[in-house]
Amino acid sequence: MKIGIVGFAGSGKTTLFNALTGMDAPTGFGGTGKVNLGQISVPDARIDRLTELNNPKRTVYAEMTFADVPGGRGAQSLDPQTLGRIREMDALVQVVRGFDGGQGDPHPVTELNDFQAELILADLAVCEKRVERLRKDRSNPNHLALMERCLEQLSGDAALRDLGLDEDEKADLSAYAFLSLKPMLLVYSQAEDEAGKEVPADLVKAAADYHLEILPLCGSFEAEIAGLDPEDQKAFLADMGLSEPASTRFIQAAFRMLDLITFMTQGPDEVRAWPVRRGSTAVQASRAIHSDIARGFIRAEVISYADMDKYKSEAACKQNGCFRVEGRDYIVQDGDICHYRFNI
Ligand SMILES: Nc1nc2c(ncn2[C@@H]2O[C@H](COP(=O)(O)OP(=O)(O)OP(=O)(O)O)[C@@H](O)[C@H]2O)c(=O)[nH]1
Ligand SMILES: [Mg+2]
């Protein structure tokens, strides 16, 4: 899963990327023009707690890849290379500038509108061409009908993600890699003296019109926190009246945006988070661990995280009737602790 950090030049993408990954990619308007890639662990207090309870040899968090996609040459438009790079992403985070930083007054609402319009325009070009062809050859009326719905949506300046497509329809469109269909989150990169303050009302309204979740974040401030050792970090945050860096909330929001849930495994060797698509059955989820488990699936033994947190051991969960045996079609829930039984 690759999450693209996107937006116009100078909006604060590389700074955010550095804060998230702890890397040190060169910042500044125009940047290096290269895509930066970085992998991060998804912070999860449940995994921390299971580690405390199991004292395992190792702990493995869910992982996510971030790609910092430079804004390109134009300050308020996207060139074909940039669009091509965005097309490769599974989900997008648009950064809009809320700080001055020597670039002049920020116009976050305009940036949001212009960027969304660019995505829709690029999709419209792809869609129009395809509909024209499908109308000529008439061999696939269902697909034509779907594409015509997309065309109508895009012609009305609306994103495909707001069309209410179901999973099958999305799968039918996957080859086009439509930009406005990708799950998306908005980051408002704040000035340092604004850190911790609310998002301006006009931007809140604009984000709501696009149905985008918005997170305020001061990239340069977050990068500073990321550079501290854990103890200083805690003291620094407490001073500011915060319990965690905004980057933690951001990573968790990005994870939710991908419509992933986490099931967990625990034992003396390993405590581990396994991200799977929401709605996965026990068998489908077991594939994340190993295809042999799915093939030889017998049952899943499940304890919910809340029960494990409360009773502290598998044995105590059993005694209190909080140990469930589930079959292959059970829909795995976020926070389930699973132990799979299988034949090899
Ligand atoms: N005050 C403030 N300054 C920031 C913030 N984020 C970035 N900056 C500054 O703004 C300038 C541009 O930031 P970058 O992160 O390089 O911008 P970018 O979006 O990667 O730009 P391109 O790579 O050209 O697309 C740098 O000088 C940063 O130090 C922020 O959240 N607050
Ligand atoms: Mg950059």
Describe it.
There is one protein chain. With 344 residues, the protein is an alpha/beta fold. The protein folds into 2 domains: 255 residues, 3-Layer(aba) Sandwich (Rossmann fold), CATH 3.40.50.300; 64 residues, Ubiquitin-like (UB roll), CATH 3.10.20.30. It is 41% helix and 20% strand. The chain is built from 14 helices and 12 strands. A 6-stranded mixed sheet has the order 2-4-1-5-6-7, with helices on both faces. Strand 6, helix 7 and strand 7 form a beta-alpha-beta unit. The chain is flat, with a radius of gyration of 23 Å. The protein starts with a strand and ends with a strand. Bound molecules: guanosine-5'-triphosphate and magnesium ion. Guanosine-5'-triphosphate (GTP) binds next to helix 1 and helix 8. Guanosine-5'-triphosphate binds next to helix 1 and helix 8.
